[in-house]
Structures are given as C-alpha cells and as structure tokens.
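Appendix B. Extra example for self-study. Work through it before the problem class; the solution is given directly after the inputs so you can check yourself.
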Amino acid sequence: MARTQVAPAAVAETAAGARAPRSRRRLRKAVELTALIGPAVVLFGGFVIVPMIFAAWYSLYNWSGFGPLSDFIGGQNYTGVLTGPVFREALEHNVIIAALSVLLQLPVSIGLALLLNRRVRGRTFLRLAVFAPFVLSEATTAVMWYELLQPGGPVDAVLKGIGLGGLVHYWLASTSLVLYTVFVVATWKYIGFGIVLLLAGLQGIPPELREAAAIDGATPWQATRAITLPLLAPTIRIWIFLSVIGSLQLFDLVWIMTLGGPANASTTMLTYQYVNGVQRTQFGYGATVSVVLFVISLVFALAYQRYALRRDTAGALTRAVM
Amino acid sequence: MRGSRRPVIVAVAVATAIAIAACSSSSSNSSSASGTSSSSSSSSVKVTLTWWNNGNTQPLLGVWQSVAAAFHATHPNVTITVVPIQSDLFTTKMPIALKSDNPPDIFQQWGGGQEVTQFSSGKLANLSSLSSNWISELGPAAAGWQVNGAQYGIPYDQHVVGFWYRTDLFAKAGITTPPTTIAQLESDDAKLKAAGFTPIALGGGSRWPDAFFWEYFAVRLCSESVLQSSIKAVNMTAPCFSQATTDLTAFMGTNPFQGGFNATQAQTGAGSSAGLLANGKAAMELQGDWETSVVPALTSNTGILNDLGWFPFPQVPGGAGNPTAVLSGGDGFSCTTGASEPACDEFLQYIDSTAVQEELVSKAGVGLPANSAAEAVLTNPALQAAAKAHAGAAYDAEYFDIAFPTVAGQALDTALANFFAGKGSNSTIINSVSSSSGH
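Solution. Structure tokens for the complete assembly:
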C-alpha cells in the first residue's frame, strides 16, 4: 500500500568551488539549488500544496460544484464529517485494516522474507511468485478477486474440494466478513512488496555476524532474534509507515469489489469521500473529508517520524538544509 | 446515473477536483461562431461542436462517430468533435466543465432533477424556441428534459424498467403466463425455487438495481399526483412511501433473490445479476430495457435473446397508482450556452430523425427510440413488449435518483441499498432525500 513518498530526499551539500571567492561560491550554490530543487518545488507546490489550500478553502462552503462559492458555512462541514456515524465507521475500518496489517501482515512478511533469504531450491521462482501480485494494478486485482469470491465461485469450490466446505461464506455480501475479505485481498496484493523491502534489508546485514554468533554457539533462532531482527528494524519501521499510510488511503480495491458496501460495512474514508463528495456533488463536503484525512495522515506521519523513525533518519538531512 | 448501460466498473482514482479540471478543460473552445446565422446553418461560417457522449464502447461508439460524420456531410460548415466518456465519469466531469469557461457544446443529459442541478450553472442553453418546430415528434417523452417548462435537454432514447424473464425456465417450473400481481409473483417464485432456480437475480452490490423494487412499489401505491408533488417537493412523507417499505419488506421476506445479492454487481461478468439471468441460474431480473444489450455479452448462448420475455411490474393490492404506470427514464443531450446555434439544435434534431433513430435501435441497441416512428425496427419480442407497455402507460415515473436533485437521489440510492443489506429502517429511507443525514 505504498503510495506516499517517505522522508524528504537528502540533499548533499555541494563541495565544489571550495577555492572560489565567497560571493561567487554563494551565487553558484544558489543557482545549483534553484536548478536542482526548483522543478520539484514547482511540481510539489502546484500539485500538492495549492490543491490542499483550495480544498481547505472549499471545505468552508456548501458548494455543489456549480457557480461561485457563495454559501459560507464555516465549520459546519467539519461538524458533519466528524459527528457522522458513517464517517466514524469508515475511520474505524481504516484503523482496523492498518492494525491488521501490522499485526498479521508484518510477521508473515518477515517469516517469508527470512525463508526466501536462505538458499532454498527454486528461490528465484518463489521470490518472483510472491512479488507478482504487487505488479498487478489494484483494479485488476479487485476485479479478479471479485470474480473468485462469487458465491459458488472458485474460492468456494477450492474450499469444498479440500473438505472445508463448512468454511464457505458470502465473502463479499456478509456485513460482518466483508472488511476482512478486503484485508485478505489487500494482503495478497501487497505482501510481496513488504517481502522485497525486507529482503533488501536482509541483504544489508553482513553474514559474518551470524557466522560469528554460530561459532559462539548461538542457535539459528537465537541468531535471528538477537542479530537479524534488530538489524532489520529500520526496514521494518519504514514498512510499518508505508503500510499504515496506505491503509488510511485504501480506495481502489474496496471501491471495485464492494463500493464500500454492503451497508457501509467496508467503507473507508476515501470511499466515503467519493460517495458524499463527488457522487452527490457536494464538493465542499468532499473537500472537508479530504482535509480531515490529510490531517489524520499528517499527524500520524509526523508523530511516527518524530518517535519511531528518528534514529533512522538522523543524519539523513544535512545541517545546512535543516 | 442510469446511463444507457453501465458496461464496466471504472476504478476512479480519487483525484482532486483540480486534477479533474485539468483533464476536462482540454476540449475545444472553437465554438465562438456568430450568433447571427440564419435559421438554416448553411451559412459559410465554420463552426466546431464538441460532443461529450457516453458511447465509449462499441457498437454505440461507432454509431455516434458515423452520425457525426453524416451530419458533417450534409452541413459542411459544422464539424463535430466526438468525445466518448464512460457514463459514471459524467458525475465528476460535468460540474467542473460547467464551471469552466469552455464546457463542451453538447453533453450527455439524463434529465430530471440532475438537469435542474446543472441548470443552476447558467450554462445550459434553452432549446425551446429552436426545437419548437420538431420536438412534438418525440411526444410526451421530451417533458423529462424540461426545466420550468423550457427544453434544456432533448432525449434520444427512452428506457422502461420491468421484469426480464427466461421463458425456458418459466416453462420448466410450470409457469405458463407471467404474474400480474405480487401474490402471483410470490407463488411463481416458489415454483421456480422448487425447480431449482433462483427466482430473481438482484445486483444489489451496484447500489441502484435494488432501488427499482422500492420505487416500483411506491409507483404502484402512490397516486400520480402524490408522486409528482413528492418528487417536486423532495419530500417522501406521504404514507404511500412508507407503505412501499412495508410491502417491500414482506416481499423480501419470501427470499426471492440469490444468496449474497448484496455483493452482486449488476452487469459485470457471469456472476453479475444480468449474468445469472444470461446463464440460466436465475429466472428473472427487474431491469431497464438496456438488458438486451447487456445480457448477450455475458453468456456463450448466442440465442439468449430468444429466451427472454418481458412483463411489467405486477400490481400491488390497494395501490392508488395507475397499474399501467412505468418507471422510466432515458438518455439525451444538452447544448451549452456557448454552442453555435442553430447548429447544435439541428444536430440534436438530426439525432432524433427517424433514420438515425432506427440506426440507434438496430445497430447500437439503445433500447427504445425517443422518436416512436423508429419503433418499427424493434425485432426482439421482449423489447417489443417493453415498448408496448411504455407506449400504453398512463404516465411515466422517472427513476427517483434522476428525478430528485442529485444529492437527494444519491442519498436515496444509498439508503435503499443499506436497507436491502439489513441496515436502516423505513424512516432512514423516507428521510434520506429531505435531509443530508445520509452522511
């Protein structure tokens, strides 16, 4: 569920021109910075910051999308969103998905990554197989699983075939199950991404450490627990960050498989925004949902950066930029 | 939005309104021809009309292109730029386009309360006087595209909702004539179940086909005047609407639908409600006449259309509505105020000419033509039955989600879908249109 950029890219201080006079050096630095950062700033400003400001502005109006913004209603949209039972349900669903991702997806990803990091027969094929779903678009994944999960469809047939017919349910039609069905599909799609990320992290751990531990008599489990996992922690922390932000922004899978239904049982904040903002042409209200979602994501991102990612990003930003 | 069809689900990434505006503003702005041209557009001023329609898949895609080319051949000074757009995207694109300085000259228009919502942009052209010499060909159908009695849109086809059924499955279940009352429908359901078929397929997952059931109960139970005044006032507190919920609840209690209907989509794949009908898993579906263009694509049975029959929604005992009334709608187009006239009006007139209407029916399968002169080319018996019921209806009730202003119509669809999924009550349905409590 990676749709967000992570930390701001590190900008290396230029070392060139150390001998030039100070004023020329400064000018050159300014030109370089403008040339390198300028386009990114223009794009970021034009397509991220400005639309956000517009959204915040629209959110104060009752606006159907037609005509001028004339019906100023202050915080009324915000009251509507924050006290609305359906929005709270949607937020709850996002939180459940995020929590399940961390509690279930993460251990499975780590386990599979550790397994695939060993020299097993057909390792390349297995890595490919695990990563393949991530390459599919969300729309393709959703349509495919929608068909597989039909009542009496392939999933049910497989369950019956292996003698687990008692487990057959209305996967997408049951209001108590549908959210978890969506979570399983999301896991199927995104677990490969987590595994590849963790594999990359594992590659960075020098094998000598484990070898030394083995010589000292550590069991493989002890070595994993005391050496591999702590050294993998930065990757795990990044994965959690991406996963939670992705969970908060879950839309495509849900929209195509269930439209957020039945009876809002799989609504997420974004499907709520689409239904109430776009489909009902209440663009002011829709903008409000966007702002609320943005604030929630931002608060999480900042808090997470501050408390969990601090040691990982320390030193990534040079003093000159900070 | 009931487009003529809804062939695919589209994954609409939630782009910001700004992103959408950026995309939609790329259409032409060359429609600034003189407004002084005479009533025939044979003047030499070259004009271009940008035309947003929902014919994004064949065969309609090809038919619209040939219609535009044919019009250009007879009106060399008028060039039509065809822009096909998937139905559901009009919801997002039109508000932005109508707010911009260069909306399309002609765009897909479903009429009703949605047209009234768009009318408030001030960008819809009043076609009343221009079309006055030919609109009568369309009969009462054109009224659904009026705002305050003026013609701000013009239909090119009409739709009527009714039961499509498999004649072969009915025969297997021992049903000789289609039901005419709800009680008969329920007893036929039981016969079909006994024969091993799902009586009625319902695409509840798409969140609009289920609304047809409640709306039809309301159409049967409410008198014409109550129905009209309630729609106009966006208020459903009249007792007949609550009675519709009661009757629907009783009907749903007989379990007429397939299992898991809450997640079944209407038109996508063999597992959709139309697919269940197409593949003989279910015997009936309450749908619009676009069914005949949806069903063949969902089955390998090439003769499927010969197995389909049509009957109107059954009578409801004690109902104040005329039993012949139909739930209906249609597709049409509006011109915007920037469009060259009379070119735009002439183009819409051309689309409603018998020749083009016949092409739309026979080649594009649009359902029922707006101009009834073209009905002669309807060959499918089920479609003919639907056309006959429509022609003989005492009055039309437009699908409620289109008849109401957009926000109320969408809220009603949501409330009804929730009700079908076992959440909510009569009061949430009734109140959905008059408050924004649907949030």
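Self-check: The mean pLDDT of chain A is 88. If your reasoning did not lead you there, revisit section 3.
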